[in-house]
Amino acid sequence: MLRLGSLLLLCLTLACAERPPPPAPRTWPRSQNSGLGTVTSVERVHITQGFQVLHGETQEEVTVHEGLLIRINGLSPVEFMPRAAMSPPSMVLGNSFAEMITWPSGLWPTVLLTEAPPPGTEAGLWMYDSWEDPTPRGAEFKRELTRALGPQGLGVNIQTPSADAPVTSYLSVEVLKEKVRGRRTLNGVPAPELCASLQVACGFKDTMHGRLDCGVCPQGQTCTADNTCCTPATCASLGRSCGTVVPDGCGYALDCGACPVR
Questions:
Q1: Which residues pair with 123 in a beta bridge?
Q2: Where is the signal peptide (predicted)?
């Protein structure tokens, strides 16, 4: 009996010794400055199909379902203007790269989708200037993170909403983008004013700032492929009494009916 007890004790000891240590809790670095911009809202979202995020230090891509939808003012549109063969800057929350839902504009906030830290966590949001190296490695990434979130850098802290805060669910990131980009108002500015500033008169317009719904043309006019209102010709004004492939002057075809059989 004593020998059996000793064997059991030995087995338990070995089992405990072979058990791997629990993983260290993930840390979310905070920003020591608030120079990046002004956060206007932070919302909890759930993406049913999940979305991928890149962890900068490890270069590991993971799929997550819980995210934050962050709106921030103050990012310079010039920083994100396209440059030949170069990637624009990336937004990063802690060490997790964010996805741009809408791009910076002077008209409305930039909208980001990020991985969600635990409820109540405060984490630093910062911009990684990836013009020269779009895929930073561990040590370089950590240097950039430390610089951006340091006292002289450009960062801002994001507070994750509490566990009992409302959560909006979306089937996919594409559905979320359509919901955000297709608004008739952005940051309280009516779509007609936004559309006019971009010289878009009608229809849907996909821009680097998001998708705008610029409405319909006045009665008697039609919206062209380049989002302008155009008064189409009629069969009578063109002197046509029949035919189905007659340009109307607005990029479409007129159907003037069948010609009589002779």
A1: 158
A2: 1-17
